[in-house]
Specification:
Elements (H helix, E strand, L loop, with lengths): L8 E3 L2 E3 L3 E5 L6 E6 L3 H18 L4 H17 L1 H12 L3 H21 L6 E3 L5 E9 L3 E4 L7 H12 L4 E4 L6 H12 L7 E4 L3 H8 L7 E5 L2 H13 L4 E4 L4 E5 L5 H13 L9 E7 L3 H13 L19 H16 L3 E4 L14 E4 L6 H4 L6 E7 L2 H8 L7 E5 L3 H10 L4 E4 L18 E2 L4 H6 L2 E9 L2
Parallel strand pairs: 7-8, 7-10, 8-9, 10-11, 12-13, 12-17, 13-16, 15-16, 17-18
Antiparallel strand pairs: 1-2, 3-4, 5-6, 6-20, 11-19, 14-15
Length: about 475
């Protein structure tokens, strides 16, 4: 069994140990280790390193950049078992889900590395003696903030996007689940990434963001997290004229049309909803099911949810691990109690499991009124809210009724329904007949309060560049 790694800062190509807060195992509430916290002097060193690293990295040939990035991905693939154990220890997800997250992170890194070779500009036709050339150039040092729920793949998206575009980056990763970022950075270090191109810090989130974002050397902000924090950081970035990528919260609707098999769709929904114990910004949450299949769907959903094996993620027989922290337990209990008081039916789950470790079952609530908190506040946990609708149009209206617009899902065999859904659902990502919200090659991000900018795909890399027009009179 691999041990939990030491959690240090990484600045200008060197690891640095410092005092900090404990890292807690959510399965048994034991202390795994201590995460180092950056001082103001450490942040200044990281800024200087990122400035120096950018000057070197932007001049490095794209093919050479890709070679180093791909080497890092190869090292991560070799270390997947060790990294997965550390992730499960600190975050709780089942070990197989941890491995899949790491391998997905590798897919993202590899795709971005090769797409960085194709950040093309263009030549605009013009009159004789004049040439207009459009260039895409790396924007500069990036300040990146990643969340606790995906400790490796979320940092990987930001690091891969920045480095593949020719930028340097200061990554501020989560103090609660820091090992994924440490192991990610270690792979880049071992792959030969020049000092200063990638820097890793931990510490008080508000203090670090409020110090880094106004710095003139930082040219782009990228953040994944809650809507309130994202709005605060976007406001701060705006005051200092910094572009930002904001991948914020969601409250994903799932529209289940009456032309699908309810039991099969319910089984798929249990798998999608239980992933990472529902602690996913794109987690399927609000299920709108056409009336003719509503009862068989919701009953099958509840039956299958109650059969999930829940326990320590290191046991490969468990299908769902604990929630990541005690805050999520409090939130689940509060939302379930509120929904019940307003008339919702609890068909499975609803109560914490035991009193040691943050275990909470997949909870299916039926006939949930619109004024229940869980219907308009993102639960970010294993709550599935299932309600009947008469028509697809009504389902689309309900899906769009909230200020969120990150991911949405639908199940139908009808081409007409699929076309209506694609045109009418307000979301940055719509998945039909499956629960995969994004892939390495596709753009990912939200609309409305769920943010702006994109990660992934060609569009994601372009967010790390600036457009320069060069107009050259030759005669």
């Amino acid at each position: 069994m691999a041990s939990y790694p030491q959690i240090d800062l990484y600045i200008d190509g060197r690891w640095k140990r410092a005092d900090g807060q404990p890292v807690i195992n959510p399965a048994d509430e034991s202390v795994l280790g201590t995460v180092s916290a950056a001082t103001r002097a450490d942040l200044d060193d990281a800024l200087a390193a990122a400035e120096k690293g950018f000057a070197l990295w932007r001049k490095t040939a794209p093919a050479k950049r890709a070679q180093i990035i791909l080497k890092a991905a190869s090292l991560i693939r070799e270390r997947v078992d060790e990294m997965a154990v550390a992730m499960t220890l600190e975050q709780g997800k089942p070990i197989e889900q941890a491995k899949l997250e790491i391998l997905r992170g590798c897919d993202i890194i590899e795709w971005d590395a090769t797409e960085g070779l194709r950040l093309y500009g263009r030549v605009i036709p013009s009159e004789p003696g004049m040439r207009h050339t459009v260039l895409r150039q790396p924007i500069g040092p990036v300040a990146a903030f990643s969340p606790w729920n995906f400790p490796m793949s979320s940092p990987a998206r930001k690091v891969a996007g920045a480095l593949s575009s020719g930028c340097s980056i200061i990554l501020k990763a989560s103090e609660e689940t820091p090992a994924g970022a440490v192991q990610l950075v270690r792979a880049f270090h071992d792959a030969g990434l020049p000092a200063g191109v990638l820097n890793l810090v931990f510490g008080n989130p508000a203090e670090i963001s409020e110090y880094l974002i106004p710095q003139s050397r930082i040219r782009l902000i990228t953040f994944t997290g809650s809507i309130p924090v994202g709005k605060h950081l976007a406001e701060m970035a705006g005051r200092h004229m910094k572009p930002a990528i904001m991948e914020l919260g969601g409250h994903a609707p799932v529209i289940v049309c009456d032309d699908v098999d309810p039991a099969t769709t319910a089984a798929t929904s249990v798998t999608g909803k239980s992933r990472n114990a529902g602690q996913v910004c794109v987690a399927p949450t609000r299920f709108f099911v056409q009336e003719s299949i509503y009862e068989p769907f919701v009953n099958s959903f509840a039956e299958r949810a109650s059969q999930l094996r829940i326990g320590d993620g290191l046991d490969p027989s468990n299908q769902m691990g604990p929630l990541a922290n005690s805050r999520r337990i409090d939130a689940m209990e509060t939302m379930v109690a509120d929904a019940k008081s307003k008339g919702a039916r609890v068909l499975s789950g609803g109560h914490r499991i035991g009193n040691r470790g943050y275990f909470f079952p997949l909870t299916v609530l039926a006939d949930v009124p619109d004024d229940a908190r869980a219907m308009y506040e993102e639960p970010f946990g294993p709550l599935a809210l299932v309600n009947p609708v008469k028509t697809v149009d009504e389902a689309i209206e309900k899906a769009n009724s909230l200020p969120y617009g990150l991911a949405a899902y639908a199940f139908t065999r009808s081409a007409r329904n699929a076309d209506m859904l694609a045109d009418g659902v307000e979301a940055g990502n719509l998945s039909i007949n499956h629960f995969v919200a994004s892939a390495a090659e596709t753009p990912f991000g939200g609309v409305k309060d769920s943010g702006y900018g994109r990660e992934g795909g060609t569009e994601g890399l372009q967010c790390y560049t600036v457009v320069k027009n060069v107009s050259h009179k030759t005669a």
